[in-house]
């Protein structure tokens, strides 16, 4: 009798030993139903295909695709932000350049305004001088007219006196 013959005899007594086979099969079925049992090779290939379907059904591939797309979108947004920063830097530089140019123009305009003010003041002084010269010329003209009137009246007096003297001489000569 061998080591396992004791069990063999029991199996023969229990109608071919179905009790142990049933227990093994039920144990194997319990493991399969709980998902912890080992499966034969052909079923593993089916299982790997079915796990791919399961992951696909769960949406892992879709999630991975979304993650990749989100990473690309983040990279794109990062690039856009960099471009915006570059543009902002260029705008700041352009604004500074324009600011310097405007300050220079403002200084030039201030100098031009000072020149115009000086010229305006100079023209007002010239206008005042011209007005004074015109007044002086009018005064000189009035003096000239006054002197001419005086000379005319002196001339008239001289002519009158000459005519009296002549008439006196003529009357003297006629009386003589």
Task: Write the SSE topology.
Blueprint: H1 5-13, H2 18-34, H3 41-58, H4 60-175
Give a verbal description of the structure.
With 176 residues, the protein is mainly alpha-helical. It has one domain (39-175). 91% of the residues lie in helices and 0% in strands. The protein has helices spanning 5-13, 18-34, 41-58, 60-175. The protein is rod-shaped. The termini are far apart.
Percentage of β-strand residues: under 5%
Query: Structural class, please?
Result: mainly alpha
Number of helices: 4
- The secondary-structure element order is HHHH
Nearest-integer average pLDDT: 77
Share of helical residues: over 70%
Cα separation of the termini: 222 Å
Which consecutive residue ranges, at least 5 long each, have pLDDT under 50? 10-47
Total number of strands: 0
| Major β-sheet annotation | none
Radius of gyration: 67 Å
Global geometry: rod-shaped
Name its key features.
176 residues; mainly alpha
């Amino acid at each position: 009798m061998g080591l396992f013959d004791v069990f063999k005899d029991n199996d023969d007594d229990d109608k071919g030993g179905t009790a142990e086979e049933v227990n093994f099969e039920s144990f194997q079925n319990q493991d399969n139903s709980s998902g912890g049992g080992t499966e034969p090779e052909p079923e593993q290939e089916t299982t790997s295909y079915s796990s791919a379907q399961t992951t696909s059904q769960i949406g892992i591939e879709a999630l991975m695709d979304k993650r990749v797309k989100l990473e690309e979108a983040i990279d794109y947004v990062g690039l856009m932000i960099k471009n915006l920063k570059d543009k902002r830097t260029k705008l700041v530089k352009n604004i500074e350049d324009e600011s310097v140019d405007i300050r220079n123009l403002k200084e030039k305009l201030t100098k031009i305004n000072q020149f115009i003010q000086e010229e305006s003041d100079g023209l007002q002084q010239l206008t005042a001088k011209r007005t004074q010269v015109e007044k002086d010329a009018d005064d000189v003209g009035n003096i000239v007219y006054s002197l001419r009137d005086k000379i005319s009246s002196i001339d008239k007096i001289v002519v009158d006196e000459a005519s009296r003297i002549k008439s006196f001489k003529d009357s003297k000569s006629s009386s003589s």
